Amino acid sequence: MEKVIVYEYDKRNFKEIEKLIEEQDSVIVDWAIFNKKGNEDKVEFSAGTEAVYIDISSLLFNEDRAENLIGLIVPFLNITLENYECDIYIIVDKRYSEIIKNTLYLRISEIQKLEILLGMPHESINNVVDIDEAMFNSMIHHLNSNLFGNDNFKKRLKEELIKYRLFNKIGEQPIFSVFICGESGIGKTEIARLLHNYLTPTEKMIKINFGNYSDENALSSLIGSPRGYVGSNKGELSEKILRSKSKIILIDEFEKASKPVFNFFLELLEDGNFTDSLGREFDLNKYLIVFTSNIKKQDVSKTISPELMSRFNFMCQLNPLSQEDKQNYISYKKNQMIKKIEEKLNIKLNETQMIDIMNIDTRTIQNLRDINTKIMNNISKQIGFR
To answer: Where's the AAA+ ATPase domain (predicted)?
Structure first.
């Protein structure tokens, strides 16, 4: 049974899409005109029609009924591919792409952008491999400017990413994975957040926290459990990948994962893809996965097997910030917060107030979250909020 490609479109572009398709001597039709015909009957199109774009969106307006209704489209999938001389494309409003993936995953090979197929302008590059050298250097500058301390780590990360960009392009390294350990609150998760915000600032971040998982159900929580099982679910990792165009995945508190989860990532990092409990295939080529852990570097081998450690492209430990780094961070964070207050609340602070906000004794504070709390408390005092 041959699988087909479905092309999703942005409803906001529909008038432009219709015009372009018409200019290409092609037509858009609703799926229902095929459903009215028998399996052996062809739908006739005007002579010279180059392509027919079959829109299945009307099947999916009512999400509660969609899973039952979508079965109506299956019988003509092979008909459309075999019985017509013109090109046939299945298209859908991108708002319903997730439903399509969940219900027709056995018949669909992948979902692509209709705008790209038609040669229309489309979204910017969203991965670390395909950006050009100037944008890559800009991304590294963004990371270095907003991540304080740990200069050796930042240097090594750049070197490893340069190597990854090279070997991914020749098919040797599908995924880049970095394992970062160290004390809580020193910037481990911020690395993934900075990369995500630079490449895809408008998308939801793909973040999995194993501190929220129970050992017994961790793998099912991650990739789902089969249909029909009591308490079945679609899987947090699968769903978040489907809902975001980000190519950065943050796996937080990885040391708390169960053995089946460790084995899952052992295979994922080797193959670059996985299949979830519903049989949906996920190709993670050009994805960057950041694993974080609060354990010390010398204790990593007590929790994670040598086989899994060998799959990580880069392993490191972040060190607590120096006093100078903490003061630089306070200045950076203070300016960031004050700018938002001035823009959104139209509140101006004078130079004396700025100095008072910076008055934080960080000698006994290592956690950046605690420093953030001190900054916020000082700002609140200065502007009179309680």
So the answer is: 174-322
Closest by Cα among 208, 184, 159, 10 to 95: 10
**Residue 253 structure tokens:** 């508190």
The closest alpha carbon to 289, from 276, 279, 274, 278, belongs to 274
Confidence bin at 311 (pLDDT 50/70/90): very high
* Angstrom distance (rounded) from CA 193 to CA 208: 13
Which of the four pLDDT bands, split at 50, 70 and 90, describes residue 81? low
Which residue from 307, 304, 235, 243 is spatially nearest to 276, judged by alpha carbons?
235
Q: Which CATH superfamily groups domain 133-317? A: P-loop containing nucleotide triphosphate hydrolases (3.40.50.300)
How do strand 273-275 and strand 281-283 relate by DSSP bridges? antiparallel
Place of tokens 């395909």: 130
What's the order of all strands across the beta sheet hosting 4-9?
27-30, 51-55, 87-93, 4-9, 108-113
Report the 10 Å Cβ neighbour count for 94. 19
- The span from the CA of 277 to the CA of 280, in Å, is 7
> Is the pTM for the entire model greater than 0.85?
no
Number of H helices, E strands in the chain: 17, 12
Encode pLDDT of 29-75 as tens digits: 888 777 665 545 667 788 888 888 989 888 877 666 656 666 666 66
Domain extents for the chain? 4-117, 133-317, 323-383
Lookup: tokens for 340? 């938002």
Nearest to 11 by CA among 96, 118, 85: 96
